[in-house]
Amino acid sequence: MSTTNRAIRTGSGIHSTRRNSNSRNQPLKPKSSGKRGLFALAGALACVALLMVQNRANISGFINRPVSKVRIENQWQRISEAEVSKVLAPFMGSGFFDFDVVEAKQKLELHSWILQASVTRIWPSTLSLHLIEQVGIARWGNEQLLNQYGEIFQPDSLLELSALPLLAGPEDSQAAVMLQYQKLNQILFPAGLLLSGLSLSKRGSWEYLLNEQIQVVAGRDDVFEKTQRFIDFYTSQPFQQSSQFYSIDLRYGNGIAVRETESGFTGVAIR
User: Facing residues of 200 across strands?
Assistant: First the structure.
């Protein structure tokens, strides 16, 4: 076993002491500083908890601030900010976490021109609002409109929308009538013919109005084939002639019947 000698000077002289060199490799005794740190942390947390309890009203008021601002995320054509403000007024001032976004969304979607509403809270006190408007494609009767999905909605007034095509049909037929309208438009528009109206009878017969002037009776079957036959005939006529067309009957197997505004009834056979 190795030893180390060290000289120590004292008042009476020099004495020699011997120390075991392996003592520095002995394990250290655990210190109490770790426990003291845990006690300090626990004390700090207890103080924080006490402060939070004592000031819970102020803290709650800071976190759950009243919603006081509305951020509009898109532009609207048929909806006014005043109308939206009126709908949201009962909800404004509610705490951030108390604001009922579901009910606010439902109330907004009761507006006749709102197809879908998105309401999102932004901390600390802002409401984000995105509205998707209805798109009026056609009138349905005298008081209602059809949107692009063939769904009925009813605005307060249709005075500004009187130029929209007028569609009609039996109850719950609006989707079928809208689909027929869209398909007919695809083949009529390239020929310069505007579909101003379309109606479906209870017996399933189709009639439509072109350019707000020409009344066309298409019948129940082969409506598109008959319409294409009329288009071919119409585009082959001089404008002076076709501009006089008043009514068209397409219910013939191999021809059409034309009535002009001036000359009365004229039959035209097409084979």
Answer: 206
Q: Residue 40: inside a domain, yes or no?
A: no
Instruction: Answer for the pair 142, 154: CB distance below 8 angstroms, yes or no.
Output: no
Q: By C-alpha distance, which of 40, 2, 9, 38 is closest to 23?
A: 2
Residues in the chain: 271
Residue 233 lies in a domain: yes
Instruction: Flag whether 27 is in a domain.
Output: no
268 near 258, Cβ under 8 Å? yes
Residues 129 and 144 in one domain: no
Q: Do residue 212 and residue 168 come from a single domain?
A: yes
Q: Token pair for residue 216?
A: 């066309």
pLDDT in tens, 41-57: 666 666 555 555 545 54
Residue with tokens 């109606």: 199
CATH number of domain containing 68: 3.10.20.310
Instruction: Quote the pTM value.
Output: 0.70
Residue 41 is assigned to a structural domain of this protein: no
What would the two tokens of residue 19 be?
């120390």
Low-confidence ranges of the chain (pLDDT < 70): 1-33, 35, 39-62, 262-271
240: tokens are 């002076």
